[in-house]
Design goal:
Structural class: alpha/beta
CATH architecture of the largest domain: Alpha-beta prism
Distance between the termini: 6 Å
Bound molecules: uridine-diphosphate-2(N-acetylglucosaminyl) butyric acid
Length: 417
Amino acid sequence: MSKITIEGQHLLSGEVNISGAKNSAVALLPAAVLSNKKSVIYNVPEIKDIDYLIKIMELLNCKIEQKDNNLYIDNSEMINIPIPEELSVQMRASYYFMGALLAKYGKVEISFPGGCNIGARPIDIHIKSFEELGAKVEILKNRYIITADNLVGKTIYFDFPSVGATINVMLAATGAKGTTIIENAAMEPEIVNVASFLINMGIKVRGAGTKRIEIDGTKKTKNGVVEVFPDRIESGTYIIIGALLGENLKIKGIIKEHLEALLFKLEEIGIEYEIEGDTMTISKCNNLKATNIKTLVFPGFPTDLQQPMTTLLTQAKGISVIEETIYENRFKNTYDLNRMGAITNIVTLNKLEIKGPRKLKGTKVIATDLRGGASLLIAGLIADGITEIDNCEYILRGYSHITTKLRSIGAKIEITE
Ligand code: EPU
């Protein structure tokens, strides 16, 4: 188990670069198996989930070369074998092999995906949609065997605009005869990133980024090239850090349109920033005001920034209320935040009150999930004294080189095994 140690209250200046988006990259790697031969993915973040996906692809006999942050993938000798449980349970995104391998081979065998424990996280929408396209799904304990002699395109309505199901059905639909239409699709930027890769491979995808996506199936794909978008959640996390500790801190790799909901909330709280091109400059802001936040699907306030935002709101005057509508169990970070001196109170299962401003004090804490870990790390950066975060593997799953990046802008932060 690794541990992050932070000496708090150091101001941060200089420039930090945002890496490629985790939640795009983890879909783009499985999508690459659809390319007929070769593909290139630029700007891949260096995080654990990517290492596991590469291991799975190597078992499928994809040849992968890594140069800088780019992956060069050759599928010419690819095979389809069951994906071992010890790899698929390491991360949620392993489920994208369901859609991709089903489209390419008409068969996939994989265990139930892993991921952070932040709620029940069923995959019923994915499974129901594969069945609607003509696949047969057998579930043996937690193992899924999905087969289809012929997938046939049709209109599928999602009860909820799930990010994972939208991408998975887009991937499966590439192998279906005719056109598949997804109604009430997710509109997150990650969907657009994956669609652009499929289009580059010669697959016709229309409407990605809107509620209705159309995919024309084809097995005749070309080599594909794609660049991973900058990570909007990593961007948001560094923006929050900048608002608390920045001294003309520059954050490079910002796509403003991906961050509107956060930026509006920051303005409400009293945070000032400047954006020029893809770079934001931000400094520590005083006299922050409480606000209310409701997490929603894109373009609403992202659930993945809810926990980092909670730490920011411990420094705002008044009572803030956060309503979490995406997951049932995403307030676990508040237990340790309170131990550090915050006053937060879970009023109902999905509603949190935060009373501020509060001075935080460093102590020993435990990361229970990725973004909850980020929330504690931000708390450690602003707290008086030393904070030790155990279980920090969770944080490393989603933030590329986080301790190196923070040290380069002046934080006193170390990671030890
Ligand atoms: N849901 C269902 N049935 C389904 C699919 C989803 O009930 O078949 C529910 C989930 O249980 C959850 C909600 O719908 O309550 C949202 O799930 P969604 O499918 O949209 O999320 P996901 O694809 O599992 C991705 C990201 C998450 C991010 C969400 C929402 C990846 C690998 N994960 O998850 O990222 O929170 O979209 O934006 O892309 C993170 O990065 O910390 C993280 C958890």
